[in-house]
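Figure S7 source data.
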Amino acid sequence: MLAYRHAFHAGNHADVLKHLVLTRVLRYMAEKDKPFTLIDTHAGAGGYSVEGRYAQKKGEYGEGIARLYDRKDLPAPLADYIDLVRAFNPDGQLRQYPGSPAIANLLLRETDRLRAYELHSTDHRILASYLDTRAQTQVRDTDGFAAIKAELPSPTRRAALLMDPSYEIKSDYGKVLAALREALERAPDTVVMVWYPQLQLLESTQLAARLKGSADAAAKKGWLHVRLTVAAPADRPDGKGLGMLGSGMFIANPPFTLHDELAECLPLLVEKLGQYDGANYVLEQKAA
Ligand SMILES: C[S@@+](CC[C@H](N)C(=O)[O-])C[C@H]1O[C@@H](n2cnc3c(N)ncnc32)[C@H](O)[C@@H]1O
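Tokens for the predicted S-adenosylmethionine complex:
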């Protein structure tokens, strides 16, 4: 039984960072005529109402997408992502927020393949019905981590993988690391995107270094790591806190354009999404 429902968190600062990166990667991959495959191992329901009771309960989108949605002065990569969110809101008012498979549905071409995995039965049903008529698409209700073996190497050869678990179970940290290694072993040029929460928890603080070590050994085109910190660490004597301070994305085999695109957007994200004076970002990359 899975307790996590992304509907509570849709459109928060972590979704903004994740979906900005996803948008840039998919745009880049669609520049070449040759089709590619996107494997979304933890796909969620596909779309979320920010007016619904789930999103309203926590109001996280208010400190995320809502702070950017009406702005007209955004750097081009952010403006492109916001335009995609606008495409989900035909009357202009922010009512719906697209999840990763919905963004993929907009950006993938008819010849590109989409493989979406979602274990929660309700979210799986919603997603399967949403993508029902999309060509070249399969929506599965099986373990997304186990998908690596089934999906890679892909028949299209070109592939991107988004790994976006909830990390409510600590074993997810070890699983993303193992899945990154397995993906790069099976197809070393796969663009692997791993999202992670920035928490005051050893597993979280160590994850980026571990992912870098694995990508150093196996990624054909290096890696990029971006982290956006929006909230202050909890002031507890044990140095631990429960809340998410921010989040990060680790990308193996990133598009060569990604670093500069993110560098253009991150100062504004810190300014608009930061919840304290110390809000900051990290952007680092290593060529192969
Ligand atoms: C953070 S949410 C995904 C959000 C989505 N990627 C997006 O960007 O819109 C994580 C999802 O993974 C699902 N999930 C948890 N464990 C899973 C597993 N082993 N395989 C596939 N889905 C899983 C949860 O039910 C939840 O919907």
